[in-house]
């Protein structure tokens, strides 16, 4: 893998905004703005590297199934910060297998191969920019430009598979109004377009606008029953909301109930506690890093301490040879507990440190999006950089 210089397209901000990437700038702590979308450079990968990532991802998906069984059999929910009132529904949906859509593995790539950093299984973002980069490779490299990016096609295919399975006359796509950059809105909006292409009638709305009717169940602004809901709102938040009890009670595809996508069992996979579970089950696996729950004995001198439920590197600490080397922004995470994962080098490309985000649709590897940071923590100031397959 290499990082190369690329001539940015003329008028690229207008191009990507028209394609849906309206949140292409990030506000820095001093109030200035920095482009989040970065097309002055690109990463090149060989076909062999892509095949290796794809094979690793397929294997990890199977390993995650074993890990889910292990969490339930070993009753690790408390250790993972998952509240007891959610456990019966997690177990039930794990067995009944309501539909899931997508996820994103984050990998480090170095001389030792691809190493799993985490799996974003419930509400992964950077979906829009992954789609937009396909237009970039076509514009810059022409019809011969290649990229590992079947995300759109596989999402359409997945929604088509679900046409006969989802209850109700329409699917609701909900996001939170609390997110101000527009990322959640545009991510949910993009998923609406994919589902419409697959044949669904869709409704996009803020989760704050959902209502509850005693006999009908969850309803939209017009009082219509919300039978199928895709939520860009994490379960670890939802189970603590005022309506959590009703959401858990009215979960399913029967009349008066709501089928939620992603399913609640993904609280097991989207939790950083999945990392030590995988290491217990598959020690020394070439795609895994040693990982432990906080308080478990380990001999790691270089490690990353991560909150079980944090996002974008928040409240994480990197220790190298016993000394703190970097830390993520303090956003109040960590009360639920931490895991410790062996530190691995992300690689240094002219001072840039990339994380490779491999998308999955259902159980299938689907494509790649790369974010890079100046520091060792990939955080909310990271940049999205497109890639191209170059053999």
Give the SSE map:
Layout: E1 2-5, H1 12-18, E2 25-27, E3 33-35, E4 41-45, H2 47-74, H3 87-96, E5 102-110, E6 113-120, H4 127-141, H5 151-162, E7 171-175, H6 183-197, E8 202-206, E9 211-213, E10 217-219, E11 228-231, H7 235-238, H8 244-249, E12 259-261, H9 266-269, H10 274-281, E13 291-293, E14 303-307, E15 317-320, E16 323-327, E17 338-342, E18 353-361, E19 364-373, E20 383-385, E21 387-389
Parallel strand pairs: 4-21, 7-8, 7-11, 11-12
Antiparallel strand pairs: 1-4, 2-3, 5-6, 5-18, 9-10, 13-17, 14-15, 14-17, 15-16, 18-19, 19-20
Helix pairs in contact: 2-10, 5-6
Description of the molecule:
This protein is 28% helix and 26% strand. It contains 10 helices and 21 strands. The strands form 6 sheets. It has a 5-stranded antiparallel beta sheet. It has a 5-stranded antiparallel beta sheet with strand order 13-17-14-15-16. The chain has a 4-stranded parallel beta sheet with strand order 8-7-11-12, covered by helices on one side. It is an alpha+beta fold and 391 residues long. Helix 2 packs across helix 10 and helix 5 (151-162) packs across helix 6. The chain has helices at 12-18, 47-74, 87-96, 127-141, 151-162, 183-197, 235-238, 244-249, 266-269, 274-281, and strands at residues 2-5, 25-27, 33-35, 41-45, 102-110, 113-120, 171-175, 202-206, 211-213, 217-219, 228-231, 259-261, 291-293, 303-307, 317-320, 323-327, 338-342, 353-361, 364-373, 383-385, 387-389. The N and C termini lie close together (11 Å). The protein has one domain. Residues 12-389 form the Glutathionylspermidine synthase pre-ATP-grasp-like domain. Pfam families: GSP_synth.
């Amino acid at each position: 893998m290499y990082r190369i210089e690329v001539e940015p397209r003329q008028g690229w901000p207008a191009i990507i905004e028209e394609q849906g990437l309206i949140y292409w700038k990030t506000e820095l702590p001093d109030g200035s703005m920095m482009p989040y979308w970065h097309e002055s450079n690109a990463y090149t990968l060989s076909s062999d590297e892509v095949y290796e990532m794809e094979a690793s991802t397929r294997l990890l998906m199977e390993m995650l199934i074993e890990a889910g069984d292990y969490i339930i059999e070993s009753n690790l929910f408390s250790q993972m910060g998952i509240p007891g009132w959610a456990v019966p529904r997690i177990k039930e949906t794990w067995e009944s297998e309501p539909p899931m859509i997508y996820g994103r593995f984050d990998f480090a790539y170095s001389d030792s191969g691809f190493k799993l950093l985490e799996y974003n299984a419930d509400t992964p973002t950077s979906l829009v920019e992954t789609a937009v980069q396909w237009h970039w490779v076509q514009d810059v490299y022409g019809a011969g430009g290649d990229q590992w990016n079947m995300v759109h096609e596989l999402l359409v295919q997945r929604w088509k598979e679900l046409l006969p399975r989802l209850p109700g006359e329409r699917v609701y796509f909900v996001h939170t109004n609390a997110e101000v950059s527009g990322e959640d809105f545009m991510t949910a909006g993009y998923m609406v377009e994919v589902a419409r292409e697959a044949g669904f009638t869709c409704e996009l709305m803020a989760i704050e606008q959902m209502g509850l009717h005693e006999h009908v169940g969850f309803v939209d602004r017009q009082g219509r029953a919300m039978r199928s809901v895709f939520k860009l709102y994490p379960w670890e938040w939802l189970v603590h909301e005022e309506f959590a009890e009703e959401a858990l009670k009215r979960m399913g595809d029967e009349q008066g109930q709501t089928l939620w996508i992603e399913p609640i069992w993904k609280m097991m996979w989207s939790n950083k506690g999945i990392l030590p579970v995988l290491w217990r089950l598959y020690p020394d696996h070439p795609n895994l890093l040693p990982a432990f729950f906080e308080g478990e004995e380990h001999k790691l001198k270089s490690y990353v301490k991560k909150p079980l439920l944090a996002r974008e590197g928040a409240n994480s600490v990197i220790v190298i040879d016993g000394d703190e080397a970097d830390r993520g922004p303090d956003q109040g995470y960590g009360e639920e507990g931490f895991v410790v994962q062996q530190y691995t080098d992300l690689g240094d490309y002219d001072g840039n440190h990339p994380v490779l985000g491999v998308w999955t649709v259902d159980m299938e590897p689907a494509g790649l999006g790369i974010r890079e940071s100046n520091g060792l923590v990939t955080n909310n100031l990271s940049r999205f950089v497109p890639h191209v397959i170059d053999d």
